[in-house]
Amino acid sequence: MSDPVAAKSGFLCMYMSNHPDTLVSYVRHFGKVNDNVISAEMTAIDTKGMSLAYKTKGSGSNKIDIRILFEPPLLGYEEVKPRLLGMKVDAEEAMGMTRAPKVTTFELPGQVLLTAAMVGFLVYTTFTPSPDSPNYSPIFAPGYSLRSVLPSWVLPSSWAFMVAVHLLEALYTLSLARKHDMDFSIGVLHVVTTFVFGFPIITNLRKRIQAARIDSIMKGQ
């Protein structure tokens, strides 16, 4: 099966020749080149990555070839522009060339329902009363039956794992809140909901940040 991006490699290389500063940022950030890069050009691109040739202050007229892989690979030609724009912003932010976009809103994605159901089931199984309790009801029978057959370490370990993972995710969200200059209330909402619901909050936040980055670039073109 032919590569849809490689088929238009010539056009894309010609187009990117008008953006030499972007190509230099790719080389330095994604290629992890610390030398003084003075120029760069795209020589080929496909769904798996792009090939660049660059010069440094010390290389004279000699060009150095480098291959930068796309992670994950592109699914089609329509993904080229948003991916290259996203990589441009990632590179320029990492090198301090641009400011990270400010996040001013909060969204609760629908995916939190799955996490809420899992956490709710863990709470239900852990705290369901035994049949001799005055608070017992037939609704607690499945939870009590499951808890009775589980090894004693399963529920405590599940709680420890969940709290540890969600705490790390909340700390990561806190770093994003500081990086993207969130207002206190917006930042607290993101951090607290990440601790409760976990990864869906981070995924949604990163998507909105990426959209803001690309929107900023498009307005600047």
Automatic annotation (TrEMBL):
Keywords: Membrane, Transmembrane, Transmembrane helix
Transmembrane segments: 108-127, 184-202
Signal peptide from the UniProt entry: none
Taxonomic lineage: Eukaryota, Fungi, Dikarya, Basidiomycota, Agaricomycotina
Protein name: DUF2470 domain-containing protein
Record flagged with keyword Transmembrane helix: yes
Pfam family, one: TMEM254
PANTHER family: MEMBRANE PROTEIN, PUTATIVE (AFU_ORTHOLOGUE AFUA_1G04315)-RELATED (PTHR37783)
Domain DUF2470: start-end pairs: 11-87
UniProt KW Transport keyword: no
